[in-house]
Amino acid sequence: MKHTDIKPITDPSRPQVYIETYGCQMNVNDSEVVLSILQDAGYALTENIEEATLILANTCSIRDNAEQRIWGRIDQFRLQKKTRPEVIIGILGCMAERLKEKLLEKVDLVAGPDSYRDLPQMLQAIRPDRPQINVLLSHEETYADISPVRLDKNGVSAFISIMRGCNNVCSYCVVPYTRGAERSRDPHTIVNEAKTLWKNGYKEVTLLGQNVDSYFWKDEHNSSNNTNFAQLLEMVAKIDPALRVRFSTSHPKDISDEVIYTMAMYDNICKHIHLPVQSGSSTMLEKMRRKYNREWYLERVRKIRSVIPDCGITTDVIAGFSGETEQDHQDTLSLMEQVVFDSAFMFAYSERPGTLASKRYPDDIPYELKTQRLNEIIELQGKMSFKSNFNEIGKQLTVLVEGPSKKNPDELCGRASNNKMCVFPSMGEKAGDYCTVEVVSVTSATLICKRVEEQL
Known about the structure:
Blueprint: E1 16-21, H1 25-40, E2 44-45, E3 54-59, H2 64-83, E4 88-93, H3 94-99, H4 101-104, E5 109-111, H5 119-125, E6 132-134, E7 157-161, E8 163-164, H6 175-179, E9 183-184, H7 187-199, E10 204-208, E11 216-217, E12 227-228, H8 229-237, E13 244-248, H9 257-265, E14 272-274, H10 282-287, H11 294-307, E15 312-319, H12 326-339, E16 344-348, H13 356-360, H14 367-390, E17 396-404, E18 411-416, E19 421-425, E20 434-442, E21 446-451
Parallel strand pairs: 1-2, 1-3, 3-4, 4-5, 5-6, 7-10, 10-13, 14-15, 15-16, 19-21
Antiparallel strand pairs: 8-9, 11-12, 17-18, 17-20, 18-19, 20-21
Helix pairs in contact: 8-9, 12-14
């Protein structure tokens, strides 16, 4: 690891960098890597855009509206440059990778997800008539030797990237084209990063990958040291029983019995799996190139619940993919009712240029019908979330405090192992403390709890 600064440097004597992050948790972690590199190059972080000499947006391309937001922000950034011509504007991440030269018409710097090590040199080379671009994708880059500078506010939970890229090439997804081929990090660098976080007071780490279940590190010198995801989970869990371990995202085709049993073996591996289904129709799943069908998905859910009965399961759902019939839509609703997901990220299909679907399948579901189906999915999930939460009433849960409740400063909020948000009366605890609570009532989003007095 290059340095030991785990928190941002704020030093007004240094050039100031302002960073906005959009999209997934991987992007949050990437922004932390970028800040680490820039701090080593002499920059300091500012939260005030008007102080910044360098303005960066770490971008997302997963849906069109995410990109439209960034174009709007670029216009705002350029207003800063009007009054302060020395300001440098840079676009990082997936949108940089996808749109490349088109962005150079508006900004000074375009850097794809595998080029962050080159940022200091690129910044030095920028001239008014010479913007800089590097969007080369790598087969090796994992940033394993860079210790991310943590941008979270509470110092309790942190992300650790265990791999980069994706090999799945789902037909609707732009990620393989913006993040490149899959490669896994040396497990010892991951464990060391988690140990550093634990020593710095963090109580929870989330292991991140586009598809964590396909994590596999191959030791070129000794194959007995090869490490799969279940083994990595165990290595991190063994750091300390009080360090919570989460992970995201799992792929239904790859989540193994070994991972499920490893979760069950260690109390500090949180009992929650984000398992994106995307559709309940086997026809749609085949068209999406998900490499599993409805029956396979339901079997994996049954296996998880037979080994870990109280495991939280959340998902992603796409409404209105190419050729989706009313029956395909009903198949999705019936699967949701069968599984009873705790919560879901739900979206209308947004065709992304360059994907297999954009080349092979027409985006032929009318906007109004997509919206109607999405609203039906959202409405059903609201009922399922309430049903799932209702089943928690009367249970005692251990909660990791995240801070005061947004609605009532006399209450605390935090997550149980199953990832459900709990709200409960404060007894003076702070973020990072553990509390035992009992669920007394629920909404579709929250468990309302009372305190369980510790037995003397």
